[in-house]
Records
---
Amino acid sequence: MSEAAAEESATRVVVRDLGVTEYAEIFAAMKAFTEQRGPDTLDEIWFTQHKPVFTQGQAGKEEHLLFPGDIPVVQSDRGGQVTYHGPGQITGYLLFNLRRMGLSVRGLVSGIEESIIALLARHDIDAAARPDAPGVYIGNNKIASLGLRVRRGCSYHGLALNVDMDLEPFGRINPCGLTGIEVVDMSSLTANADLPAVQRHLLDELVRHYHLVV
């Protein structure tokens, strides 16, 4: 396929860097975007770092929220259990028209995992996905989590990649409902954990995997 033909078949996407945000505000904005979008609305990727917050997925069980302390807990409509978001973590929201892209939910999940794994490989970090629990792992340590919702064929929510953050709050929960695992970030594994650079590389991998044009 020629370069021109490849670009013609690619999906155009708008990328937004929202900076540091309150989770509840972005959650409401994602839902509104998905509700209001039409068949010709361009897909979007939103990057943000959230102020400290625990988010509880639709299947979330109270038993996995051990002692949240002074960090707020927000009920979300994504899949999965409880997780933590905070500064130093890249949260990426993929607002995709899956029907238009010809993409299944399983394909969306696998693509996110493979994009993060490829990004980490750029930093000489050997990571893998697990068939029994979505996310990306370094051995038995979790470095990235996933949580998604699909409405009318369109996705929202997405991924959270731990780059250089305070990991203490993860000790207040069973992350994603899992026990017996540790949560790690990139800064504990490499000296190359500059968040803006990691975010650019992550976007590169998502663009490549999903055949996007920015």
---
Amino acid sequence: MKKPLFIVMEGLDGSGKTTQIELLKKKFHAHGMNVTDTHEPSDGPIGLLIRKFMRHELSTHPASIAALFAADRLDHIKNSDYGMLKKLQDGFHVICSRYYFSNYAFQGEYVPLDWLVNANTLGKSFLKPDFIFYVNVPPEICIQRLSKGRTGMDIYENLEKLQNTHLEFLRVFEKYGKDENIHLIDGKKSADEINEAIWKIIVGN
């Protein structure tokens, strides 16, 4: 790996993204490499505002949330204190849970998809992923996982929304993924098997 990599982990809520990110970090550390992880919405001021909408603490039109995601992404990329570009320039591999394809898939039913793509053009020009992994798990399994040990769901965590979002992910990958390094990973396998499949793609084996 001649340069720090920017890796995006995509998938439905409950697909196991967090587990895979943690396992992937262990792989990098085991090979003596610096790595950090992050997520969207970010922990920046715009990201924290988005989370309030998602938790039903505030309300607004869904189109406003879609626009906020694009704005949060720009801050997440370019912020001079905690931005992803800074981490990469400091020599860290960066693994991000969700990026602009999540914006397309989750918000595409509320605003025109072409508008979303255009809104993210600047962010994409600043930082394009080296790898995008979609942990492919049926929505029915995801909602079962989410229901265990949870006292509440956010605005996107219901079966109908997960089903729609899964179909949207596949559609936007097909429509806008031609110049992206996208890999659909079978998320029904064990966590270790999934991690090995991802790692082999990253190292080119």
